[in-house]
Amino acid sequence: MNILMTYKILGVSDVLFWGIILAIAVIAELATLNLVSIWFIFGAIVSLIAALLGASIALQFVLFVVLSGVGFIIFFFAIKPRLAKRVVRATNADRIIGQEGVVIEPIDSIKGTGQIKVQGQVWSARVEGEGTIAEGELVHVLGIAGVKAIVKPVAGDTPTPWTKR
After folding, report:
1. Pairing state of beta strands 113-118 and 121-127?
2. Model pTM?
């Protein structure tokens, strides 16, 4: 039994058949978001339009198979390589880890307050462990927890007015 016979046995109109195929492909694509059925969507849309215009069932299937195949080839050889080359850039959080900054608002681990300026950016900060760090002291950024920089004081250093932090 070939697909054309199955199509006739189902007892649905060709427009409804392509609508169902289109819906299944769209649902599969939305469920995965991995471009696994996007080419079937294109083929089903064109076949649905052909059915609405009165094309024969054979032509509708030929359009579906050919256009789905062409869509797959275009995706595989033209689009997929470009998607693989996308560069993921580091966030500004990654850039401040390991850097030194200056405390611009006293850091108090009990109150949960404090800010630092590092690489020209102002960050909420907290001390590694417990304690306080006074305004104007140099700190070393150890990491990021949520939206706060985790810092420790740099021993014996104080910033000068011309130091760019």
Report:
1. antiparallel
2. 0.47
Between CA 159 and CA 151 the distance in angstroms is: 16
Number of domains in the chain: 2
- Residue range 57-107, pLDDT digits in tens: 999 999 999 999 998 898 888 877 777 776 666 565 678 888 899 999 999
Interstrand relation of 113-118 and 148-153 (parallel, antiparallel or unpaired): unpaired
Same domain, 115 and 140: yes
Which structural domain, as residue segments, surrounds residue 116? 92-153
Query: Residues 75, 100: one domain?
Result: no
